[in-house]
Specification:
Length: 413
Amino acid sequence: MSMPSPTPPLANKPSSFAGPVVLCLLVMLSHIAISGGRVAVSLTALQLGQGTLEVGILIAVFALLPMLFSIQAGRLIDDIGPWQPMRASIICVVIGTSLPVVWQSLTGLIVAATFVGVGHMTLQIAVQRQMGLSNGEERLRNFSWLSLSMATSGLIGPLLAGVSIDYLGYRSVFALLAVAPLVGLIGLLSMRGYLKASHIKSAPVTQKQSVSDLFSSPSLRKVFIANMLLSAAWDTHTFVVPIFGVHVGLSPTTIGLILASFAAATIVIRLALPWMMHRIRPWQLINFALVVTGLNFLLYPFFEQVWILVSLSFLLGLGLGSTQSSILALLQQHAPSGRAGEAFGLRMALVNGCQVALPLAFGALGTFMGVMPLFWLTAVGLGAVRWFTDDAEKHEKNSTQDTEPPTPPKDRT
């Protein structure tokens, strides 16, 4: 286990409440744009006459450049600090959400998805690294707040997209989504002084470092793989539900409601996380989520009734929403000293790799096989990862024992 990252000087640091709360709001406003944008882009493409494959390409584009450049983004943030990358990233999100207002075509949607995906990726890495500068209970609290903020935006974004399309049209929805990152840009400017002052440059590198170093730790490797499949399940649900809903004749508002029930469940579970994390170990939560999510994906395509789909979506949200705080805390705990941003970047690269590959593969498979097998393939993958992480707690205990100082002998005099 590496030494914890140093905290910023107290003179430059806002209150323990103000700093994390503003950062969480920034991520939430950006995440409204991307969570609502995925739904809006998918339904707009279907309205323009595009097929399942084209929708898969569009969803993949959100993650293509983040997959390629998130590690470099993490290293850059480790090197120069969070302020400049965060400012550039939120401007990208504003541009991406605004483009489809005037450019309604497959090409315009692809360009918009690229800007939103790159911007949100960079902002998320920077905020995760900043939130991880704290220690112990404060770090768990910060990551719980961050998870809760993204759950809230995950509820607002899809619901806003579905209702706006029904009542305002396919152009106005993007104008509404652009308001959130614009407000976020104003909040970011208020954090400029703190973000600049809080950066502490890493020590000079004395030996060559590579991404493979991060995989050399069994604990980190299992965290990366579990997070990759859980995030893939999350994005598979977001990708497949609009297609499944259109296939069974559901309206955009109903599709948004189903996705919003998933997000509502993530809010509920994350409100309970501070209590749960004092009583349940991180890997217990992660392994439980793998099982619950896999079973849910097996059952999902057998039903078309809205109330059942909403209920299954809610249960899925409870499972997937319980893991992010544990995963982020484990990554921060086991990342080598001075490389937390790179570790978060690698996590983002793996997640986005799935977000690129799965929509493309599932879009192609869905053209020939239909939607139902896509749910089942996801369930099989989750089951395989649950088997792979079966001994994760053993590695966790060994890692802790190796890094704990020996207990001094008791004075018997």
